[in-house]
Amino acid sequence: MERVDRPADLTVRAWWHALRDAAKSFHANHLTDNAAALTYYSVLSIFPGLIVLVSLLGVLGNEGTIDSFLKIIDQLGSQSAVDAVQEPVTEIVESSNAAGIALVLGITGGLWSASGYVGAFMRASNEIYAVEEERPFWKLRPLQIVITLVMTLILALVLIALVLTGPLTKAIGDEVGVGDTALTVFSIAKWPILFVMVIGVIGVLYRFSPNARHEGMRWILPGSLLATVLWLAASAGFSLYVANFGSYGNTYGSLAGAIVFLIWLWITNVAVLFGAQFAAELERTAMAAEGATPPGEFAPFVSPARDAELPPEGGEAAPPQDEERTPSEGYSTSAPPAGAGSISGSGSSGSAVGPEDPPAARRR
Questions:
Q1: Per-residue pLDDT, 340
Q2: CA atoms of 236 and 234, how far apart (whole Å)
């Protein structure tokens, strides 16, 4: 069978199978419950994360950067999200005049606390890939902090770039006589930049969270893209529902804003987890298309029923078996066909891991 080095090599049918199996596995893994747990960790991590982000914005940017940050939240999220973070951000700004060692300690403490969300997501992603967490604490905890720092730096740098390039674009436009037009173009162009930023942040989370080896970012970005699209669509739909049909105020009274914010966080985590599940299923589908299902890459692997559903081009699918794969069932440990390789883009066919190899052979 032909090697599948990148997602573009898969057929439309294979993409559909990956999406369908992602939906099935999402339900079987009870990832909506994991999204609720991640919402809890989001609440615990969001304010330490804001401390780090606002501190970095204060060091690398200016007060206008922080104002733009709040405006972007207002336009991307619901009004309750703005109300929830505006007062804490204002307090952080007013008390962030410390410098030197105090600033370093504040950022370090904020990173340590905010990394709790990354740790919770790592456990959820291990469940998605059906692998055990074998990385030691001394390696895992610093990794969580580094991931949190990288994600925060991406957010800070993009926000600063948006703030600084706006006036710069207008100034250059004024010099050539198209100041207002240039500013209008920039105000439109910033949204694709933010879209790419969100994809990148989620991609970093997907790449390093599970204890499973990926074959490059090219297999992760489709899941990150799907998660971002789902998040934007779900956020827009939820905002419309709250504005026109929701009656949270009658039910929860003064707590309505907080409840709406928590539901929005849950929707966000559902989208992120579904994107991770799709990324995992996409790699599994690639292995099925190659005919190679090594038992140590990440699990669960493709069942014989699913192998039958993905015939070669021009062939007919064999009738599926009665049983259906679930994440809790065992893995296929049969040896792959001779000459079958991994989905690595190295170009060499290689040999797949055999059934006698330990499950951790292809993990980090």
A1: 41
A2: 5
Q: Which domain holds residue 222?
A: 7-362
Q: Choose among 156, 137, 145, 150: nearest CA to 108.
A: 145
Record the pTM. 0.68
Contact 225, 295 (CB under 8 A): no
What contacts 213, CB < 8 A, 6 or more positions away?
Answer: 297, 298, 362, 363, 364
Tally the domains of the chain: 1
Query: Which residue shows structure tokens 């739909």?
Result: 237
d(CA 271, CA 263): 12
Token digits of residue 192? 């694709």
Q: Considering only CA atoms, give the Rg of the chain.
A: 23
Tokens of 161: 């770039």
In a domain, residue 1? The reply is no
3-state secondary structure of 237: helix
CA dihedral (315, 321, 324, 329) positive or negative:
negative
Residue 2 placed within a domain: no
Cβ proximity of 342 and 293 under 8 Å: no
- Which residue numbers in the chain have pLDDT < 50? 99, 294-311, 313-315, 317-318, 320-364
The residue to which tokens 């995992």 are assigned: 280
Does residue 50 belong to any structural domain of this protein? yes
Does some domain include residue 26?
yes
Question: Looking at residue 328, what is its pLDDT?
Answer: 40
- Please, are residues 128 and 272 in contact by the beta-carbon 8 Å criterion? no
